[in-house]
Amino acid sequence: MTSSMDIENAHTSGVYPKRPLTIVRGEGAYLFDDAGNRYIDCVGGQGAANMGHAHPAIVAAIREQAGILMSCPEIFYNDKRAALLDKLTALAGLRRAYLCNSGTEAVEAALKFAKLATGRKEIIATRRGFHGRTMGALSATWEPKYREPFQPLVPNYTHIAYNDLAAADAAITDQTAAIIVEPVQGEGGVHPAQADYLRGLQKLCRERGAMFILDEIQTGFGRTGKLFAYQHYGLEPDLMPVAKSIAGGLPFGACLIGDRVGELQPMTHGATFGGNPLMCAAAIAALDVLVNEDLAGRAAALGGWMLERLADLPTDKVREVRGLGLIIGIELRSKVTPVLKALQEQGVLALPAGATVLRLLPPLVISQQDLELVAQAIEKVLSAAPELA
Question: Which of 13, 111, 275, 356 yields a CA-CA distance of 20 to 30 A from 177?
Fold first, then answer.
């Protein structure tokens, strides 16, 4: 019998590095392979599983809406879309939203809206930042291995140092349409921004007529211990791309729009599947779960506990542990890939964030007991591998 791995290897595009593991089921903070083995999930759908896998309320909403109406383009009004927009904008604190299908699409929308609002062409992004892989979002992304095969990219993009307000002060001019920044750099190594830095960026944008784009694709929906990371700092972003967990694991995204953007004219942007009723129903259920189960509060409490728990990892193996809520990075003194493989053997699935950072993005429904098992597995793997020193 041909295995799922064999079939995928025969037909896949080849652009994804695959681990030799076939996942067939999820439940809460657990994933199960085709042999029935259970794993504690610290990949979390790369941030798309904040509400856990197969949450009953989200599953029920998807099933119900699938039997009513799945597709309805935004040339028509729709009851589920209206309900989602009302709920999402209230939670996010921005009045309007453009609905789309993914995080990179949400970033593309933010970049386009910033240019429309300002009449300017220049975009400033940060070193180590990651904003997506389509051409505009990729132009804002820093990592050369993602960018170089596709050059020339979109012109008029500049990258400056992260957490360096003086660099931003020097870079933002009367030609700057926007600066785009993550409150926590996820792919770039789990680097949280300093509060004064983010507030200073917003102030500079206000003073110089630029849009302040806060990329909350990975940090949104409770991940950092607030509903959105900007709420830690009292910010008022002009444009805020969100995605990942917005629909409880289904592909969906949005660009939240502040009042400084002004009115956007019809036909300046669009998406066939954006705001479709099926995804809106899933997102409504996911946002209800987020609020009713206080997942942001769980992330704050459990993330703080986990950071303290990992603080005593051996310094000959670990340079630093950092994070905010339940986005946690462990910077190793060696390559992360052997550690990821060893953790999988211990029943823990985790992510890299660059070549040397172990990233933990567990579902926010995870228990403290399971986080303790994750911590023990990390300790065991590091202590049992002298070559990692």
Answer: 275
d(CA 167, CA 170): 5
Neighbours of 142 (CB within 10 A): 18
Domain boundaries, the chain: 4-54+294-388, 56-292
DSSP notation for 70-108? S---TTS--HHHHHHHHHHHHHHT-SEEEEESSHHHHHH
pLDDT along the chain (389 residues), means of 10: 92 94 98 98 98 98 98 97 98 98 98 98 98 98 95 97 98 98 97 98 98 98 98 98 98 98 96 97 98 98 98 95 98 97 98 97 98 98 71
Statement: the pTM of the whole predicted model exceeds 0.85: yes
Residue among 130, 212, 221, 252 flagged as catalytic:
130
Q: Would you identify the CATH topology of the domain 56-292?
A: Aspartate Aminotransferase; domain 2 (3.40.640)
User: Are 325 and 300 a contacting pair, CB within 8 Å?
Assistant: yes
Whole-number Å distance between alpha carbons of 215 and 219: 8
Can 215 be counted among the known catalytic residues? yes
d(CA 274, CA 54): 23
Question: Which among 304, 311, 251, 256 has a CA at the least distance from the CA of 103?
Answer: 251
Q: Which one of the listed residues 112, 115, 212, 215 is annotated catalytic?
A: 215
Alpha-carbon distance 205 to 134, whole Å?
25
CATH T-level topology, domain 4-54+294-388: Aspartate Aminotransferase, domain 1 (3.90.1150)
Distance CA 370, CA 353 (A): 22
